[in-house]
Structures are given as C-alpha cells and as structure tokens.
C-alpha cells in the first residue's frame, strides 16, 4: 500500500444508507450514559426507548436525548414492534438470559462485552440466532477507536506485510475502579478490561494458528490496601508460525503521558500508536514514517462503530465484523489467559473450536 492512499482509509463509523431501525436499550448504567447515548446522538441513531429495573438509571434520559419511551418492563420493550434492534448493556451475568428473550422476540442484538461468562453460553446464543435468522454483534467498541481501526485497515491492506509480532503497553492507573463493581469482578483485569486487547489482537492475528497462552495477574507495590482487583498483568500469545503477541499492564502508573500504546511489527513495516487517550497512529515502512491524522475517539465514536456495523450487516444480510461468532475466539483467548493466571503463568494449550 502506498502511503499516499492512506487518506482514503475509511476508519470512521459507518451507518446504512436505507435502514434506520428503532433501537431499544436494556440496562442504562454508567457506560450507556457515558458513551452509548452520546455516540447515538452524535450519529443520529433513532433510540425508541430504554429499560432498566432501577428507576434512577433512566431518570432524565428522555429529556436529554429525546427518547420517546421509558419502558416499565423488559416484556414491554421486547413486545414493542418499533424496536427492531436491542442494545443490551447490563453485566454478563444477566445478559445471556436477556439475549435469549430478545431473540425469541425477533430482535437483532448488540451485546456489551464481555459477551458471556463461558463459551458454551455464547455458542448457544449464536446457534439460536442462526436458527432464527437474527444477527448478534458484540460491543467491542475498541475496534473502532480511530488508531486501532486505522491499524486494522492497514494490516488488512498488507501495508506492513505479514504480521510477525504485536506488543501492547497499557500505561494506566486503576484508582478509579476502587469501590465500584469492577473492583470485585473475578479476573477484572484479564476478563473485563483486557477483553478489548485480546479482541483487537485476535483481529490483527487473523488467520494465524494460536498455539498457547500464558498470563499472570498480580498486585502492584503501592496499590491501596482496600482495592481488591489486581492492577498488574502480562500475557503472551504464541502462534504456531513464531508470531507472538505480548500484553503488559502497569495499572498503578503515575505519568503525564498515560496511554495504551501498541506496536504491530510486520515483515515489511510497522504500525504504532496509542489509544485511551487517542494520541497518534503512524505507519513506518519503505516509504517513510507517515503520521495518520484522524478525528474522533474510542469514547464515544467507537460505540457508534459497533452499532453501525451491526446495522450495515442487517441491511446487507451478511455477518457483522464484530459478530458474536468472531468474538468467540477473543473470549477463548481471554478464558485461556485466566486459566493460565490461575496456574501461575503456566502455558495453556489453546483450545480450538
Ligand atoms: N465497552 C466498553 O468499553 C465498556 C466500558 C465500561 C463498561 N462496559 C461493560 O458494560 C457493562 C455494564 O457496565 P456499567 O459500567 O454500565 O455497569 P452499571 O452497573 O453502571 O450498569 C448496569 C446497569 O444494568 C442494569 N441492570 C441490571 N440487571 C438488569 C436487568 N435484568 N435488565 C435490565 N437492566 C439491568 C442495572 O440496574 C444498571 O443500571 C459491563 O459488562 C461492562 O463490562 C463496557
């Protein structure tokens, strides 16, 4: 790929030309307020109504976002023919059952991450959706964080040749999760947080045969006594052909330049950049180093990317890029990493499908 054609990369969220279905949001907690609704407002998505068993969760949303209805029950939302697609943003413990009910009601689904508590649950929902001819996509919104999206398009276009190595450095501070539900989620770091990093790594390793996975999770010196989740981790993904990926998280970092930095090395070049915050992305190959300008951020634009891709897939009757089926491999990597961490970092042979 010539660096001159980089300007043509279509990295921004895309919505269908002629399909503008009503969306129903189930579960209206912090991420819906922080990212789903701001993204949908920015991109003109038609949200018909919302439902949350906690009255305070939906308070003020109608006025702020011009939403027509606050449903008083899940049945009311699922029974409304104006809702064609549901966006389920609860935690995974209750989400699978809601997904089953939504499929029975004939709705396409966008499900928050992590998709499920185990692979069997996820597979079951995928089979049921297939049987009913409905689409299930996962809200792996990081796939549309502009630097990651640009990197994915560059890898797919062969701009760096064949991928040989992926490196993520997560330079972050988790003080903000103290006292929240996230602090008590088992394997918070590997399962809830790093699912985005396992997922994007899976996208960049597309077509490679993963052989084994290792991971450790640990408390960091200086981590507050009251915090329960581990703030430090590393994980290594090894492929049969010698390609590898390494994730390292320093979750107690004190730095003026926090960020989630990444490098994708290929046989003919390198892509590097940073997300959260979205600092930069550049292509380094035989044509030189090209800094790629972009607009938007993971929060909230990535959240439009996932929904837009699902709606385009419905309109075009194809599998969405962020389909639950594609995400199964990311979950598989994630669960293998958790298993390895429980065995003090012993390699776990990667279970195929
Ligand atoms: N994609 C991202 O980048 C991102 C970021 C943060 C959180 N998340 C994920 O989003 C999910 C929710 O996170 P959150 O921070 O918004 O949590 P939250 O606790 O703030 O919100 C969850 C909401 O779900 C509601 N709920 C519970 N049971 C329900 C049911 N049966 N039906 C309908 N609603 C129900 C709760 O009342 C609550 O309002 C988690 O899976 C989390 O991992 C994703």
Short description, anyone?
The chain has eleven helices and 15 strands. It is α/β, with parallel strands linked by helices.
Main features:
single chain; 353 residues; alpha/beta; 6-stranded parallel sheet; globular; binds nicotinamide-adenine-dinucleotide
Strand order of the largest sheet: 14-13-12-11-7-10-9-8-15
pLDDT below 50 for ≥5 consecutive residues: which ranges? none
Instruction: Please give the radius of gyration in angstroms.
Output: 20 Å
Fraction of helical residues: 25-40%
What bound compounds does this protein have? nicotinamide-adenine-dinucleotide
Q: Could you say which overall geometry the principal axes of the C-alpha atoms support?
A: globular
Question: What percent strand?
Answer: 15-25%
Order of helices and strands: EHEHHEHEHEHEHEHHEEEEEEEHHE
Given helix and strand content, the structural type is alpha/beta
Per DSSP E runs of 2 or more residues, the count of β-strands stands at: 15
Distance between the first and last residues' Cα: 33 Å
Number of helices: 11
In round numbers, the mean pLDDT is: 97
Q: Give the biggest beta sheet.
A: 9 strands, mixed
